[in-house]
């Protein structure tokens, strides 16, 4: 029987290699083709934002140039057009989150409490670092020089100098405040990594430490035994507030002094800071970290 011609209007144009798709259901064992994913245009900003999402989700240890490239749907080599290496990416990533910290504004015309402005800024900085898991570890032993860090530094120094804090004291004070903020945020990220994300989570561990201190031989450790409760009490927020109050209130003692009267206020000898000026005597000294004194 001769083949009958199919009217042109009834013909189905099927691309080569896809003949099975012409009006027939796919066999159940055949893998369905995935729709192609549109790639995000590559740029330095896209790399930074992608890296930040990766750290927020999986932590700093999970960050690598390869992982970031996979998230972007590209090869790791393409990232090096924007960043020389991972360290450079981390440096800019840290500066990216510093941009989230509100810039402190000095009180105008002597009105307002400059110490409240500085303390508020310390809390704002800590909140930003805590919001990004353990990315704050990048800040260790590095002087921030990114554009956002420079703007923040300039703003806080303006507050301190505007309050009459001498230049050296303002510079050193800001440096030491930063150390407290970074150390507190790093410790919080370590606690979180160990499953102690809240005060309630940490209480079983602190109770063990408290009981251990209380069980020490009182003749050898009378102070630790007597202070077992005090050594382990207080929330992370309470201890941070204590540290910031201690430091900022200490800075306030220098307001109105001159660099000439503070040149000998601190001398560093063999790694120990020694206060030499009889006119500037600190009210006290101490450092506290969550879960115990350091």
From TrEMBL:
Single annotated GO MF: transcription cis-regulatory region binding
Question: Domain HTH tetR-type: where?
Answer: 41-101
Which GO BP terms, alphabetically? negative regulation of DNA-templated transcription
Q: Check the record and name the PANTHER family matching this protein.
A: HTH-TYPE TRANSCRIPTIONAL REGULATOR RUTR (PTHR30055), TRANSCRIPTIONAL REGULATORY PROTEIN (PTHR30055:SF151)
DNA-binding region range list? 64-83
**InterPro entries assigned to the protein according to its UniProt record, in alphabetical order:** Homeodomain-like_sf, HTH-type_TetR-like_transc_reg, HTH_TetR, Repressor_TetR_C, Tet_transcr_reg_TetR-rel_C_sf
Question: What is the protein's name according to its record?
Answer: TetR/AcrR family transcriptional regulator C-terminal domain-containing protein
Going by the UniProt record, its keywords in alphabetical order are: DNA-binding, Transcription, Transcription regulation
Q: Where is region (Disordered) located?
A: 1-26
């Amino acid at each position: 029987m001769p083949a009958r011609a199919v009217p042109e209007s009834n013909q189905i144009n099927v691309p080569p290699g896809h003949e099975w798709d012409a009006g027939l259901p796919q066999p159940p064992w055949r893998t369905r083709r995935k729709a192609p994913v549109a790639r995000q245009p590559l740029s330095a900003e896209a790399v930074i934002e992608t890296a930040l999402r990766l750290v927020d989700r999986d932590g700093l240890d999970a960050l690598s140039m390869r992982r970031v490239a996979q998230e972007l749907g590209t090869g790791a080599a393409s990232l090096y057009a924007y960043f020389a290496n991972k360290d450079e990416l981390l440096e800019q990533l840290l500066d990216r989150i510093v941009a989230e910290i509100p810039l402190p504004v000095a009180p105008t015309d002597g009105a307002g409490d400059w110490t409240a402005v500085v303390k508020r800024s310390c809390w704002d900085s800590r909140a930003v670092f805590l919001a990004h898991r353990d990315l704050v570890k990048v800040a260790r032993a590095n002087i921030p020089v990114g554009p956002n860090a420079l703007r923040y530094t300039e703003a806080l120094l303006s507050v301190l100098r505007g309050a009459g804090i001498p230049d050296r004291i303002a510079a050193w004070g800001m440096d030491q405040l930063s150390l407290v903020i970074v150390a507190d945020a790093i410790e919080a990220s370590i606690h979180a990594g160990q499953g102690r994300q809240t005060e309630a989570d940490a209480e079983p561990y602190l109770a063990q430490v408290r009981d251990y201190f209380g069980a020490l031989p009182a003749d050898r450790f009378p102070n630790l035994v007597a202070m077992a409760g005090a050594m382990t009490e207080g929330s992370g927020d309470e201890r941070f507030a204590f540290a910031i109050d201690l430091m900022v209130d200490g800075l306030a003692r220098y307001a109105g002094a001159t660099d000439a009267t503070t040149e000998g206020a601190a001398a560093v000898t063999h790694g120990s800071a020694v206060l030499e000026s009889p006119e500037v005597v600190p009210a006290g000294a101490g450092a506290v970290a969550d879960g115990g004194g350091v």
